[in-house]
Each structure stands twice: as structure tokens, then as C-alpha cells.
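Before relying on records like the one below, remember that each one covers exactly one chain. Contacts with other chains, cofactors or solvent are not represented anywhere in the record.
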Amino acid sequence: MDDWFVEAGDVYDWVHAGAKLIDVRSTTEFASGAMPGAVHVPLQRLSSEIFEHVSAEDTVIFYCMSGALADRAATWLRSNGVEAAYNGGGIYSLRDGWAPED
């Protein structure tokens, strides 16, 4: 997992350079607040919905509440042809590393 993890402070830069940010939390959790620009694809619907939002050439960063579901999502996506799939960790650490103007 270590090489698949993006530090919270780097996620902002990666997203602003074109990476896709995907929230894999539940619908209720997503509705309570999400990262700017994030697309919601709950983990349970990942296999049926993710390719509506990303292609094999994209860089994709997943996040959830703690990072555990994001790791599962990144692992699954890599095994399905997207080599640049990463775990961005949990939403609270992402919020801490996000630029204040966003």
C-alpha cells in the first residue's frame, strides 16, 4: 500500500494538476460534506460506476473516512486497468492539507 498512498498535503497539488478525486464513502457521509471537486462513487457501486468518471489514463485518488475503503478502491481499480490509482486517506487529514482558498 505504501507506494499507493498519497500524503494529504500532496493531494491538493495532484488534484489541481488533473487527478480525479473520488469519495467512496456512503451517500449519507458524502452528503455531510465532501472535498471540493470530489466525485461520489460509493464503494458498493465502484465496479458499476467508476468508469463513468475515469479512464485507464487518468490519475485517480480515492478517499473515505479513514483510508481503509480508499485502499480497497485503489487496489480494485489497479487490478482493473488503471495503474495510477491511489489512496488519499481519510477526509479529515485531507481537509487539513487542503489550501485555504478552496
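The chain has one domain: 2-97.
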